Each structure stands twice: as structure tokens, then as C-alpha cells.
Amino acid sequence: MGQKKLIKFAAIKAYENVLEYPQDIQGKWNSFFNALGKDTSPIDIAKLTLSKLTISDEPALAKPLTLELACGRGEYAVGLGRMFPEQNFIGVDLKGNRIWKGASIANKEGLKNIAFVRSQIELTPNYFAKDEVDEIWITFPDPQLRWSKAKKRLTHPKFLRLYQQFLKNGSGNNSDLNAGIVHLKTDSPLLYNFTLKVIEMYGLTLIYKTDNLYAEPTIDPRCLIKTYYEGLDIAQSNKIHYIQFNIDKELPIALDEVLKEAIKDIPMDAGELIRMEAEAARAKKED
Ligand SMILES: C[S@@+](CC[C@H](N)C(=O)[O-])C[C@H]1O[C@@H](n2cnc3c(N)ncnc32)[C@H](O)[C@@H]1O
Fold it and tell me: Residue 276, Cα to own-chain centre: how many angstroms?
């Protein structure tokens, strides 16, 4: 492993705003961010208090919490954290050397409403309590282009069932308009069309979609935050696709087999083939 990576791994171990595979943190994020803001170092997770949000008859006292999944360097966690100082943001990614970048920026700028979790996204239900998360951004995730890898796509129902365990239900019963929204920003037409298929097949609520975000007459300012991978434009598409939806229905496992067949026909355009080659080359270089 390269020296630079080792230095970054060591650095995040000492950062208060990075938690690696945290234990016993469910329901305590509001308390964690309070401690982060007060510079009570080191933060002892065992001593953090459970948010009132987990007690059903109490009003929600916790600040809104948004996750950036597959955050990489965490441009969204940091960018949204700057825009909304009264809300909390957590980036989740497996790669510590990438997280280091966002965590270092947050530390340098004194942004105490931003943290990072280094872990597989598959483990997120261990870290967040029911209804603890208000919104999720999935930013330029690997599109997992091969049909046989569709289950690894972060908008596959297998993953949506995980998010459902801690994401607020945005079914309209909630007074908070932003509750329960999942945002997907991608340059992959295949992932975009796959996600729309999932939304349609499982009867989820589609709030907004565009296959050319920057050509829209009005753009949500949050969508103007650019990530590292967006800048790479690997598929040379120059078109950003964006979807907002709610995971507001049951997702029957029996439908997954039907989905598997239904997505066989989603075409791969030329850009996706360029991406496949570029990604393979990049993976080889990183090994
Ligand atoms: C294509 S990069 C995008 C990074 C960043 N969002 C951006 O736009 O620059 C995808 C990221 O997803 C992370 N990732 C992929 N699958 C993951 C998983 N199952 N759990 C955690 N991180 C994952 C990778 O480590 C990588 O940093």
C-alpha cells in the first residue's frame, strides 16, 4: 500500500469526525454532533444519550440528519453542511483515503455538523435507528453495469430495504416536506433507467426526474454541488441524471426475480462501454 494512503488512514483514526465501523451509535447521532460542536474530545459513544426522536410520543427534538452514501471524498456531505449549518450530515464510504479528504476540509473549516462513517453501506442499519435519517443522497455510485451485478446497485430493492429501516417515511403523513427523500445523482443512463424501473415496479413515489439536470430551467441549488466523479465524466456523456423518490411502500422480495428479468432489456449506450473499460483500468491501477 502506498505511503500516502497509510498517512491518510492514520490521520482519520485520530479525527473526531470520522467513525470506523462504530458500535452502539444507533439513535445517538444528535448527541454525537452536540459533542462534536463542544469539542469534547475524545467523544465516548457509550456516554452519548439517545435522541428523543426514538421515543414515539415525544416531539422530534433532533436536528435533521442527511446521509451521503458512496460519498467518496464527501463533496455532498461537506457542500450541504456548508449550506445548512442547522442540519447534520454524514458521508458513508468504505475507502478511508477518500473520506480523509472531506473530513480534513470539515476540520479545517470548523464545520461541526459534518461527520463520516467508514463502513460498507450494507451495514448502515447497524448505525442508524428507526426514523433517525431524514434524507439520503446517493452520489455517482458505481453503476455496476453488468446485468449479473444488478444486486450491487445502490438503488436495488435489496439496498432500499436497508435504507427503509432508518429513513423517515415520506408517505405524506409527515409534516416535514423533505422527510424520506432519496436523491440519486448519476451520469449513468443505465443506472438512471434501472432506478426508474425499480420505482415503477415496486410502486414507490417518484418526486422528480431528469435525464439532463443542467438543461432544466430551474435547478435545486443543492444539485449544483459537483463531486470528484462528476468532474471525471468517465462515460463522456456530459449529461447528469437526477432522481428524487420516496421508499414509501413495502418492497416484496418475491418481486426481485421479476425485476431481474425486466431489466434485461435496459440498453447500454456507447458511453457505458467507455466507462466499463475506464473503470477496469482504474481498478487495476488501484490494486
Ligand atoms: C464512483 S465513486 C463515487 C464517489 C463520490 N460520490 C463522487 O461522486 O466522487 C463510488 C464510491 O462508492 C464507494 N462504495 C461502493 N460500494 C460501496 C459499499 N457497498 N459500501 C461503501 N462504499 C461503497 C466506493 O468506495 C467509492 O468511493
Answer: 22
Average pLDDT, rounded, for the chain: 91
Measuring from each residue's beta carbon to the nearest atom of ligand 1, which residues come in under 6 Å?
70-72, 93-95, 98, 120-122, 139-142, 227-230
Q: Is the pLDDT of residue 59 over 60?
A: no
Residue range 3-286, CATH number = 3.40.50.150
Q: What string of DSSP letters covers 75-93?
A: HHHHHHHHH-TTSEEEEEE
Q: Which residues contact 203 (CB under 8 A, 6 or more apart)?
A: 249
Active-site residue numbers?
Answer: 142
Encode pLDDT of 242-271 as tens digits. Answer: 999 999 999 999 999 999 999 998 888 778
Atom of ligand 1 nearest to the CA of 68: 6
133, 69 Cβ separation under 8 angstroms: no
Q: Which residue matches cell numbers 480523509?
A: 100
**Grid cell at residue 264:** 434485461
Question: Cα-atom radius of gyration of the chain, to the nearest Å?
Answer: 19
- Tell the burial category of 233 from Cβ atoms under 10 Å away from its Cβ (0-12, 13-18, 19+): middle
Residue among 69, 75, 80, 93 whose CB has most ligand 1 atoms within 8 A, to mutate: 93
User: How far is ligand 1, taken at its centre, from the CA of residue 162, in Å?
Assistant: 17
> Looking at ligand 1, which atom is closest to the CA of residue 141?
10
pLDDT per position as a tens digit, 140-175: 999 998 889 999 999 999 999 999 999 998 765 555
Nearest CA to ligand 1 atom 5: 72
